[in-house]
Structure prediction request, 817 residues.
Amino acid sequence: MVDDLLLISPLLIVTVMGLVSLLVGVFAPAGSFKGWLAFLTSFGFLAALGACYMLWHETSAGAAFSSQSFHYSLTLDHFGLALCGVILLGALLATLTAVHYLPAQKSDHAEYYALIAFSALGMMIMVMAADLLTLFVALEVMSISIYILAGFKRDSSFSTESAMKYFILGSFASAILLLGISFTYGATGTISMREIGLAVAGGDAHSELALFGMVMLIVAFGFKIAAAPFHMWTPDVYEGAPASVTGFMAVGVKAAGFGALARLLLTCFGAPEYRDGSAVSWETLIVILAVISMCAGNLMALAQKNLKRMLAYSAIAHTGYLLMALLVVPASSDGEQALNALGGGLVFYLLAYTLANVAAFGVAAAVGARGVEDAGEEAYAGLAGRDPMLAFALTIAMLSLLGIPLTAGFMGKLTLFGELLSSGGGEYLWLVVVAVVNSVVSAYYYLRVVMVAYMQDESAEKPIALLKSAPLRVAVGVAAILTLVFGIMPNKAINASTRAGYSLVHTSNPATYGARVSAAKPAITSTVEPKDVAHR
Amino acid sequence: MTPLLASMSQTAIPLSWYLAVALILFAIGTIGVLTRRNALVVLMSVEILLNAVNLTFLAFARHHDNMDGHVVTFFVIAVAAAEAAVGLALVLGIFRHNRSVNVDSMTALRN
Amino acid sequence: MLEQILFWLLAGGAILTAAMVVLPPVGRNPLYGALSLILSFFFISGLYVLLVAHVMAVLQVLVYAGAIMVLFIFVIMLLNLSDKELGQSRKTTAQFIGVLAVSAIAVKAIMVVSSATGSKALMAADAGFGTVDGLADLLFRQFLFPFELVSILLLVAVIGAVVLAKRRLT
Prediction:
C-alpha cells in the first residue's frame, strides 16, 4: 500500500499543493498579495519533479513497472515520467511568471494556483493513463481547469470570451473522444488499453467499429493538440487568455495530449492493419494532419501582428512537426528502434518547445501586463533598449522555435527529422522536405519579432510600461538558459528521451505486457527483465 | 424478407438499433453545437451529445455482457455535471459583459 | 413484441424531443428547449431500462433531469432574457452545408455500424448485470483511481463556478 502511494507520489504532491493553496487562500486576508502562493506551488512542482527523478532511477533502464493497486489505471514507465517532467517544468516556470502579472491584471486570487496544480495533475495522469476511462477523466480535469484559467480575468471580455470559445469546442471534442472510446469499447469489450491492444493484435476486435473509434479518437486529440483543421479555437483562446495562462496551456496541454495520443495509438492500435498501409490507418491520418497543420499554421502566422496570436499559429505549426514523430513507428520495420526514435524525437522536441514557449509567453506577460492585452507589434518596439535581458530571452525563444543551431529547438528538429529519415528508409523524405521548407518560411515571422525588439524605436506616443517582476525574470531567464544548454549539450537529454521511448516498447507491446498483467505482481523491483538501452 | 423486417420479428432488439438511435442523437447534438447561436442551447446540445454517447456505452455493455460500459456512463454523468456548472458560470460571465448570451455577440476577439 | 413497441416509443420520443431542443422554432426560447430536453432524458432513461442498466436509468433521472437541468432552468430564469438579448438567430449557407454534412456523415455511420453489428438480437443478460452490486464492485476495485480523480474534477468545477460567476471575489 505504502509502495503504491510512493509510486504515485508526484501526483500526490501536486494534489496536496493544490489543496493547500486553496485552503490558505480562504484564510488569507481579502485583497492581500497572493503571489507568495506561487512560490509554494512552485515548490510543490519542484518536489514533484524530484519525485519523478527518483522514480526514474528506481526502475532500471527500459523497464516499465506498474503500480499494484492502480495497475489497471496507471502505467508508470519512463515515457510517462519523462513527459511528467516536461509538464512539471513548464508548470513551474509558468507559475513564476504569474506572481506579479496577476496583481497587475487585478485578478490576484489563490484559486489560480490551485487550478494550475490541478490541471498539471490532470496532464500528468493523462500521460500515464492505462485505461481509456482514466484517460478521459484526467483529460477533463485538465481541460476544465484550463477553461476556468482562460477566463480567469473576469473583468476582461477578452478573457471570458476566450474561455467560452474554448469551453464550447473543448466539450464538443470531449464528446467526440467519448464516442471514440465507446466504439473502441464496442469493438473489443474492454476499456483497458492493454486488453484493447491484445484484442486488436489477436484479431478479436470488430475491425469496422475499432476503426471508427480510432478515427474519432484522433479527431478528438486533434482538437486538444491544436492540429489543423481542428485548430479554429487556438488563436482566439491564446490571445484572449491571460499571458501566464497561455504559456502554461501552450506547453502543458500539448505535452499531455501528445503523450496520451502516442501511448493510445501504440498500445491500442499497434497492429499493422490499423497502423499503416490501409486507407484509414492512423499513419495516413497523421500524415494528413501533420501536413495541413504545418502549412496552415505557418501561412497564417505570417500575417499576425500580435505576439500571442502569432505564437498560437506557431503552436499549430509545431503540432505539425510533432505529429511527424508519431510516423516513425509505422514507417519503420524494427519496432524497438522505432520507439527509441519516437522517444528521442517526441520527448526532446516537447522539452525544447516547452522552454521556448515559456520564455516567449513570459515576455508577453511582462509587456502586456500593464497595457492593453491585445498589444500589437509596437509594444515590443525598442524592447532591447528598455530591458536587454527580456529582449535577449525573447530572441533565444524565437531562434529556438525557428530551429537555429545552438538552441534546443534546432537539436529537437534535427533529432526528429533525422530519426524519421533513418527509420523510415527515406519513405518520408518528402514530408521532411515539406517541414524544412515550412521552417524556412517561419523565419519571416519569428525573426520579425526579434527585428522589432532590436531595430525599431519605442513608439513615442504610447509607451507601454514593462512589468517589473523578479520571479518572472528568473523564469524567463532559466527557460532561455536551458534552451541554450540543451542546444549546446543535448546528449544527456536526448539519451533520456530515447530511454523514455524505449520503455514504450514494453508498455505498449502486447507480447511483453500480457505476461506482466496476468502475473499481477508488479512491484517496484520486479519488472520486465531490465535491458540496457546501450547494449542493443 | 429484408434484414430489417427479419429483425423485427424477433423478440429482443438488436444492438444496431440502439447504435442508430445514439448516432441520430449525436448528429442532432452536433447540429445544435454548430448552428445554434444561443450559448445556453449550445450547452444543452453538448448534454445531448453526452447522452448519445452514454446510450452507445450501455448498448455495447449489454452486447458484451460486461459492465465496464456502465462504469464509464457513471463517470460521464459526473463529468457532465461538472461541465454544466462551469459552462453555465461562463454563460453568466458572458452575459455580464455583453448583455447577451448570443455566441455571435462575442466579438472582442477577432476571428 | 412489447419490448419492441416500447423501444420504438422511447427512441422516437427521445429523438423528437432532442430535435425540439435544437430546432429554431421551438428552441428559440431556451426554457422550452430545457423542458423538452428533460423529457428527452426521461425517454433515454427508458432505453437504459430496456438495456438492463437499471442503476444508470435511475441516475440519469436523478442527476440529469433532477440536478443538471434544474441548474440550466435556474440560470435561464436568472437571466430572464428578453427577445433582444436572445439575439437574432442567423441562418447562413455555411450552416446549411454543415447540417447537410453532419446528416450525411450520420447516415453513413449508421449504415456502416448496422452492417458491422448485424441484426442479431442482444442475448439475455447474466444475473447481476446492471445491478448496484456489479457496479460497486467495478467502481471500488478496478476503477478506484478514476473514481478518486472525479473528486478532484468536481472540486475544480466548484472552484470554477465561484471564480467565474461570483460577483466579487475578495
